[in-house]
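Hi all, long-time lurker, first post. I run a small reading group and we've been trying to get comfortable going from sequence to structure in the token notation. Rather than ask abstract questions, I figured I'd post a concrete chain and ask someone more experienced to write out its structure so we can walk through it together at our next meeting. Sequence below, copied exactly:
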Amino acid sequence: MSLKIACIGGGSGLSALLSGIKGYADLEIGKDNIIDLDSLAAIVTVSDDGGSSGRLVEEFDMLPPGDIRRLLFTLSDADELAGLFEYRFSSNGELGGHTVGNILLTALTELKGNFPKAIQAASRLLAVRGRIIPVTLDYTILCAELADGEIVRGESTIP
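-- Answer (accepted) --
Happy to help. Here is the structure in token form:
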């Protein structure tokens, strides 16, 4: 019997965890794999407001794609295409700082009509094992109260 796993998190932490889990997916006990990667559920936060994601949220009124993109890369079985998904443009122009994956998720959101369908389409393109689920479909702003009592808004402003 294989383990069925659900993970909740965001950013690089969830990606690192899933990368480790993926490393055990092909190990077997008897006839079964230890982990049923195809049934894995990755529930990811969508509160990134900096960099490429922040710019796309502002311009296209969509959920931030960055953390989703990172998980698509991590859970992909299409290594070359997944690597392209992570490519970040280095120019000083309009594309500077954006990743191919963020741009593609933005385009798929417009083509498919919503973010969950864009994630599903990108998952198929990248041969992703498991499901990637945004923790919410509503725009959220992460806030924190600092030690001095100051409240800061936005993930990118939290020290």
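A couple of things your group might point at:
The chain has one domain: 6-157.
The chain has six helices and seven strands.
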